[in-house]
């Protein structure tokens, strides 16, 4: 006998409608029309976040890393990064716990990252300025940690990789165009010649070194498109224009770390073609000298040719690196704490010129802020990413798939640029490495899934 629905099941739509209406009236009465309308639109927003969750996750990554809303200040009042973060977290939670479309799995790099993040948390609560460290931990590092797992679990289709790669390239070109425009118009220049973006808004892009860091990340993806033999003429032509724009933007910052990053990426792809390290090395040296001359680094007020001996910029870095080493010696386990190098510079630097300085090195940043233990864990994480990408590359070479190979080579070049550019750029706890980490995990899982499907198909054919 068929069970009859109870009273609540027969009238649940009516109950939900009346409850929503009453709630809207109460909110309107106490808070006004805008919160009431927001409450009315909330179910539609939640539905949209679930249906197009991949789009929200990708946009959150792009806005968080490239600071698009700061490059185009007209977008700032809309609080787009916050809205994208809420939509992404809601979608991830829904698909993880309710629809169960997001299937978690563990990878060796997940474990390495979790260990490193645990140590960053310890260093946060052992920091000399705990308030600053906790603020950075809660505002940046926790988002990074959540997205590492979310991206690596979520990006399970080749089409997702394609959209992420396109988004990174397009966003990078947008920022580069703003930088080039500012350079040509003389807007926001520091030291007379170095370009910035939205410096008056205290944007992350308002520092030329940070701007070059942001522009350096998409170069590996763009260069992969340029060197892709199977790409069409139009595709490679557009990628070439985009690569020129990105390189021009970095050149305008006059950042030596950025120029080294360009050379490392181009050297990686040239080596894939030439396979002669001597020739590639010679081309790299000539290219770096040409970039330095074209960028006008000699004309910089700091680090220019007008300074005798070791220039001011180089000495500033040496003093900062000495300070980081002294911080690690004084606190070998946890360093001075996350986001605490700047405020501790006075106490550990061998030279004081009246102001604190940034560390301008990823390696020394990790050493000074997390101690020798943190540096060791950081290097182990990088080795883990490298090994993961090598495994993916070996599998792809056995059974070539150009679309997957494009992503693997992009990530390998990006990791190389991170390590080389990191000598002069501070990027240990920002997005680039952790996007590379999560995509490296995802691409290895994708390659393994393709291999498994291929073996299953072969077994069925043989049967």
Provide the gyration radius in Å: 25 Å
- What structural class should be given to the helix and strand makeup? mainly alpha
Beta-strand share of residues: under 5%
Shape from CA axes?
Answer: globular
Compact summary:
This protein has about 475 residues and is an all-alpha fold. The protein has 17 helices and no strands.
Can you give keywords for this protein?
463 residues, mainly alpha, 17 helices
Can you walk through the features of this model?
- The protein is mainly alpha-helical and 463 residues long.
- It has one domain.
- The chain has 17 helices and no strands.
- Helix 7 packs parallel to helix 17 and helix 9 packs antiparallel against helix 16.
- It is globular.
- The two termini are 46 Å apart.
